[in-house]
Design a protein that fits this description.
Length: 400
């Protein structure tokens, strides 16, 4: 079988239509009058926030599915222009709420058999997943899976609730089809997540997979203890567990990718996973794209020794390619989207060589077409994940 596809996979035809295709502001204090101009701006933003649910309306009111050309037209003509009137984080929140209340458009037709993928003993209907970062607290799992994703990864979830970094902390780079975020692991915490995930895990349909991405609290002095707590609390509900040591927005987190630090962390986490009741979830590591070949070699060696089941390549980058055009390009945070495609794919290919196909790889970064997804698979990925491209392409991207 071609590299990265596995024994039950074969190259996918490149057609456009389906994945067979792979080819607002706070109110003023009481008594303070609003100027007409301010009222107009607030009205626009309120309308835009409502229109951010346009994806939902496209699915429930207009009765469209993710493969319908009318939904693509609706999104490009109405939803995207409206979203530009509201700040990115409010638009993000509106999307999560739409999923929470089951308003996102749904997949109406089953996936073609050629897309069936084997991941860690699970048979998944297709290799396209939603990356962590969208549904951070596991609020919209069912509706997101029904959009057509083969897998949905929630999180990162930290042991204790934390607010993350101050706003504004998300920026759209429209000209570059990219996003910079510095959320900083804003999380509901384990207790709230357990309440949601214990229910969601019982309703995961056949052919779909739930991933749970674990993070550490910003003020924690014992990273291993935080991740081990996540394994104990959330592991029983996971189709796979992700150890996220690669976000650039939590101070010192990426230091855990160092050889000694990573060895210690994975050794402790592996023990906790092995103590979970059967069936135990696969243990997956999420790595940074900002690594050189020697660092890749260290991560691969440590992962193999620690019996890691998968590696997600990759998280966002702190680098800023010279090709960036947006005036927001110098904002602090992790860059995702189209500019990350080349860098993350090169790291993916390197990790495939180093792990010799012994660890399942998930390709993430810059995918906004079937051709991009297929390039990741040809570079060694068994499956891929999307996120930023959905901002620019809308829900019909999943089917395409």
């Amino acid at each position: 079988a071609p590299r990265g596809l596995g024994p039950n996979r074969r190259p996918l035809p490149l057609r456009r239509k389906t994945l067979t295709s792979l080819p607002g502001p706070s109110p003023p204090p009481s008594g303070v009058a609003r100027a007409p101009g301010m009222m107009h701006r607030i009205g626009l933003r309120a309308a835009a926030a409502s229109a951010a649910l346009g994806v939902a309306m496209g699915g429930s009111v207009l009765k469209l599915d993710v493969e319908d050309d009318n939904l693509e037209i609706f999104y490009s003509r109405f939803v995207r222009p409206a979203l530009k009137l509201v700040d990115p984080e409010s638009a993000h929140r509106a999307g999560v709420l739409a999923g929470r209340f089951g308003l996102l458009p749904q997949q109406k037709r089953p996936d073609p058999g050629v897309l069936q993928t084997h991941l860690w003993g699970h048979v998944v209907d297709n290799p396209i997943g939603l990356a962590a970062g969208f549904d951070k607290d596991g609020e919209a799992i069912g509706n997101l899976l029904s959009m057509g994703f083969g897998s949905v990864e929630v999180g990162s979830i930290t042991p204790k609730p934390q607010p993350g970094n101050p706003r504004p902390r998300v920026f759209r780079l429209e000209e570059d089809r990219a996003v910079i975020n510095r959320y900083g692991f804003n999380s509901c915490g384990h207790d709230a997540a357990v309440a949601r995930l214990s229910l969601a895990a019982k309703t995961i349909p056949a052919g779909r997979l739930l991933g749970i991405n674990l993070g550490k609290n910003k003020t924690s002095e014992d990273a291993a203890a935080d991740y081990c707590a996540g394994v104990r609390s959330l592991g029983p509900f996971a189709g796979y567990l992700v150890i996220n040591v690669s976000s650039p927005n939590t101070p010192g987190l990426r230091n855990l990718q160092g050889r000694e630090e990573l060895s210690h962390l994975l050794r402790e986490v592996r023990k906790e996973v092995d103590n979970l009741p059967h069936p135990q979830p696969p243990l997956v590591l999420k790595m940074s794209p900002d690594v050189d070949k020697s660092e890749c070699a260290d991560i691969a060696e440590v992962a193999l020794k620690a019996r890691v089941d998968g590696i997600i390549v990759s998280n966002t980058t702190i680098s800023r390619p010279e090709s960036l055009k947006s005036k927001l390009k110098d904002e602090i945070g992790g860059l995702s989207g189209a500019p990350l495609m080349s860098r993350s794919t090169a790291v993916l290919q390197e990790m495939y060589k180093l792990t010799e196909g012994k660890i399942t790889l998930i390709g993430v970064g810059g995918i906004d077409s079937g051709a991009d997804a297929y390039e990741k698979i040809r570079a060694g990925a068994s499956a891929v994940q999307l996120y930023t491209s959905l901002v620019y392409e809308g829900p019909t991207l999943v089917a395409r």
